[in-house]
Specification:
The complex is a heterodimer of chains A (126) and B (361). Helix content of chain A is 17%, strand content 37%. With 126 residues, chain A is α+β, with helices and mostly antiparallel strands. Chain A has a single domain, classed as OB fold (Dihydrolipoamide Acetyltransferase, E2P) (Beta Barrel). The longest helix of chain A has 7 residues. Chain A is globular, with a radius of gyration of 13 Å. With 361 residues, chain B is an alpha+beta fold. Chain B has a domain of 74 residues: Beta Barrel (Elongation Factor Tu (Ef-tu), domain 3). In chain B, the strands form 4 sheets. A 6-stranded mixed beta sheet of chain B has the order 11-12-13-10-4-14. Chain B has a 6-stranded antiparallel barrel with strand order 15-18-17-16-19-20. Chain B has a 5-stranded antiparallel beta sheet with strand order 6-7-8-5-9, with helices on one face. In chain B, β6 and β7 form a beta hairpin. The longest helix of chain B has 14 residues. Chain B starts with a strand and ends in an 8-residue tail after the last strand. Classes of the chains: A alpha+beta (126), B alpha+beta (361). At the A-B interface, β4 of A face α7 of B.
Chain lengths: 126, 361
């Protein structure tokens, strides 16, 4: 899967996609490949308030456990319940079906401060 | 600069994800850990284990020396027999777990890649200290080793080598020659399945792959390559220890459940300490409720108090359950004991279950 050019990222491999004022967050194919077969994703409750840089959940695979971070402050308006039954979507479709949480950002401009897709790819050596 | 096995090109040509393991560039997986694991259990997996140490001992005091450094009584080893044993330090802590095999004119040892240098140094020192007369050689980098494991593995390669695999029992080995290639074949493995481990000259690695069938990328292939990721999930299901997790110099073989490989009445390095030691803890199997995985270092609790620590854990592809191995105090080691595993600061319910988690039919 190719990283969509308009996504913004953290160096810790979480992508952020601003869609009409709601920001979806997931992890990149690179991160999913590093984890290998994802077995479980722990997500926050709807309504949770997050600050920029907060850990919002945990992702587990047969191989390793990793924390998940948000790059922007906001309120959780939706979580991807489908990942409870099929966490493997993170491996097979990380940029669409594998989305994890949706935030209403505290400041609409925050997401634009994160790494551009091009810069992320450069920094991670892709 | 990482070392490469003779199968490096084979791995990269199949798109393997390569990682550093004990200073070697090894395949973590080719397709998916779970896929490779399940294929090994249902059909066959092919594992590059060339990174493991291959040592040999010969000469007047070779047997005496091995009986001195290994926990197992090797005086009863028949030619062609392999024995699992521990090499211990003076305190009875495990320096490595190895397989020692008796050949007609020498003894062979396969050890962990991570401990090869340590063992070589240890063996040199003991030989000098005790003034023993034997030769030692390390053929690791001159040879390749591949493990073929799974219910269909033996049948698949039955006609390929001159060795009669139906006559080669578990824990036996044979040396032979095929088209001028000298090989050694062991009926041993680390997955809980039947299978063999084959050693041959490094230069013949490519030829070996052709002999074994070649078309490994096909989904329908009986034997498919499997990486270190699957090797780890397979051995965890089989309740087999991994050095650095269930075994270390701070762990003795008895508490690790390996008493069968320890002959306490024999005088070997570490025996006196082991005879004197009062056991306080034991390696057990745990099954966790839910989908969270216990990793090495996770604290095991009972009623909020720490009672032990996890050594390995994964989501078992065969059982569909979160499993772990852990050391717990003897008083909590009975099968059925309810415990908690602390994950992300929260206790997660688990219970003690028998090892191994999986046994082949």
């Amino acid at each position: 899967m190719e990283l969509p050019a308009n996504y913004r990222l953290l160096e810790s491999h979480e992508w952020h996609n601003d869609n009409d004022g709601v920001v979806s967050i997931g992890i990149t194919q690179f991160a999913a490949d590093e984890l290998t077969d994802v077995t479980y994703v722990e997500l926050p409750k709807v309504g949770a308030k997050l600050a920029a840089g907060d850990r919002f959940g945990t992702i587990e695979s047969v191989k390793a456990t990793s924390d998940l971070y948000t790059g922007i402050a906001g309120t959780v308006v939706e979580v991807n319940a489908a990942l409870n039954n099929d966490p493997a979507q993170v491996n097979t479709d990380p940029y669409q079906a594998g989305w994890m949480i949706r935030l209403k950002p505290d400041n609409a401009a925050d997401v634009g401060q994160l790494l551009s897709a091009a810069d992320y790819l450069k920094k991670t050596g892709h | 600069m990482l070392k490469r096995t003779p199968f490096f090109d084979f791995h990269t040509s199949l798109g393997a994800k390569m990682v550093d393991f004990a200073g070697w560039e090894m395949p973590l997986m080719y397709r998916s850990i779970v896929d490779e694991h399940q294929h090994t259990r249902s059909s066959g997996g092919l594992f590059d284990v060339s990174h493991m140490g291959r040592l040999s001992f010969s000469g007047k005091d070779a047997a005496k020396f091995l009986n001195l450094v290994a926990s197992r009584d090797l005086s009863t080893s028949a030619v062609g027999q392999c024995k699992y044993a521990l090499i211990c330090n003076e305190q009875g802590g495990v320096m490595d777990d190895v397989i020692i095999s008796r050949d007609t004119k020498q003894w062979l040892m396969v050890c962990n890649a991570s401990n090869r240098d340590k063992l070589n140094k240890h063996f040199f020192a003991i030989r000098k200290q005790r003034d023993l007369d034997f030769d030692m050689s390390d053929s690791t980098e001159a040879t390749a080793m591949v493990a073929l494991q799974g219910p269909k593995a033996i049948d698949k390669i039955a006609g390929v080598l001159p060795t009669d695999l139906s006559a080669l029992k578990r824990w036996r080995f044979e040396s032979g020659s095929f088209m001028l290639i000298k090989y050694t074949i062991y009926r041993t493995g680390y997955t809980g399945e039947d299978g063999i481990e084959l050693v041959l000259p490094a230069k013949m690695a490519g030829m070996a792959m052709k002999l074994l069938g070649g078309r490994f990328e096909k989904e329908t292939a009986t034997l498919r390559p499997a990486g270190l990721g699957a090797r780890d999930t397979l051995r965890t299901e089989a309740g087999l220890p991994l050095y650095g997790h269930e075994l270390s110099e701070e762990i003795d073989p008895i508490e690790a459940g390996l008493g069968f490989a320890v002959s306490l009445e024999k005088d070997f390095i570490g025996a006196a300490a082991l005879r004197a030691k009062v056991q306080t803890r034991k390696l057990v199997g745990l099954e966790l409720e839910g989908r969270r995985i216990a990793r090495q270092g996770a604290i095991i609790q009972k009623s909020g108090q720490p009672i032990g620590v996890a050594t390995s854990g994964t989501m078992s592809p065969t059982l569909g359950k979160s499993i772990a191995m852990a050391f717990v105090g003897l008083e909590h080691a009975a099968v059925g004991t309810a415990v908690d595993v602390e994950l992300s600061g929260t206790p997660h319910a688990a219970k003690v279950v028998p090892l191994p988690f999986y046994k082949r039919a």
